[in-house]
Amino acid sequence: MIRVRRAAVAALGCMVLLAGCGGGKSPEGTNGAAPAAGASKVLNLYIWSDYLAPNTLADFEKATGIKVNVAYFDTNETLETKLLSGNSGYDVVVPTASYFERQIKAGVYRDLDKGKLPNLKNMDPELMAKVAQHDPGNAHGVIYMWGTDGLGYNEKMIRALVPDAPLDSWRMVFDPAIASKVAKCGISVLDTPADMIRVTLSYLGRDPNSQKEEDRAAAEAALLKIRPYIRNINSSEYIEALANGDLCLAVGFSGDVLQARDRARDAGKGIDIKYSVPKEGSILWFDMLAIPKDAPHPDAALAFIDYMMTPKVIADVSNFKRYANGNAASLPFVLDSVKNDPAIYPPAETRQRLAVQLADGPEQTRAITRIWQKFKTGQ
User: Fold this and answer.
1) Could you please report the per-residue DSSP string of 220-278?
2) pLDDT digit string (tens) for 42-82?
3) Do 224 and 302 share a domain, yes or no?
4) Containing domain of residue 234, as a range?
5) Same domain, 206 and 180
């Protein structure tokens, strides 16, 4: 999808704007600010850009009579800054779960009135249990979309350089002997420090959520070894670059790589992009629907969240955006080409290799920031 996810997990009150996320723009006249609160039949929505089906908001307005004012953000830090400053004016926001976890601890969100959310019964209990690691008892939010971190690659270009390339392994990026060869056709990694440290730790066979100094040191050493072979450090440009054949390998987000795949197919130039979750394991992330504590229209917010848990409604979003949703009852309405795609809905065996990305503590965040600055500068 066009919107780019994930920025570095920064400490509360210390927004480290390292990771550029692309695409977002505010509706005309809002300039990214929350619309003014109006009548009770209003909902102020703050969401990642290009993260809805074309009919979603119009259908909600028709079904409920609630007028939606929507604005878009492009990084988790932008959302977090607005939430922590208070009086954001938004009724529903869509944080990534690792940010959501610590925002809950800061008292940013309302408890959900589950009596007004009858469609909660539709949610996948296994996935909601994973999210409960961020939000005990699922008290503050429900899953909107979810996905994985993995490898996007052009097999033809890579095989020409490395015939026996291990395309199902993080060795493609983190083994200097392989990366030095693949570098000739272009390697890109995400400019998202928290994610990159975790996938590096997965490659090393360590706990991806480890907060230990020795694990950070090991990840730093592994990253610095491959720095000469990395062409791009960016969280958005790799989509078009993969689709155009300007890169052959990228550490990326599942939905973004699939967007690159679809663009390449539509262009008809013979470029075939694939996606894999490496066998060593990777990251499972969630984007959540939540209500800020100071929401001016909390009843409208509950109505919107419940509407988005309607199976057909959320299936429309998955079908359009090629991201998995957390609604088990939606699967009959999800296109076979989406729900049967293991890159979108990983099979059980792959899910067992996925770790939920938990929030980092302040010390870990500062250390990751230092490591990432060194990696980006190559010094």
Assistant:
1) HHHHHHHGGG--EE-SSHHHHHHHHTS-SEEEEEHHHHHHHHHHHHHHTSS--EEEE--
2) 999 999 988 999 999 999 999 999 999 999 987 788 899 99
3) no
4) 148-283+359-377
5) yes
Residues 131 and 101: their CA atoms lie apart, in Å, by 9
Question: Using CA of residue 243, residue 226, residue 167, residue 335, what is the dihedral sign?
Answer: negative
pLDDT of 315-350, one tens digit each?
999 999 889 999 999 999 999 999 999 999 999 899
User: Would you say the pTM of this structure is higher than 0.85?
Assistant: no
For residues 122 and 329, the answer to whether their CB atoms sit within 8 Å is: yes
Same domain for 363 and 230, yes or no, is yes
240 and 350 in a common domain: no
For residues 154 and 272, membership in a common domain is answered with: yes
| Rounded distance between C-alpha atoms, residue 261 and residue 272, angstroms | 7
Report if residue 166 sits inside a domain: yes
Find where tokens 């959320």 sit.
Answer: 314
Domain count, the chain: 2
* Spatial separation of the C-alpha atoms in residues 165 and 96, rounded to whole Å: 33
- The Cα-based distances of 153 to 226, 270, 333, 337, 364 in angstroms read 18, 14, 30, 20, 31
CA distance 8 to 56: 29
CATH code of the domain covering residue 156 = 3.40.190.10
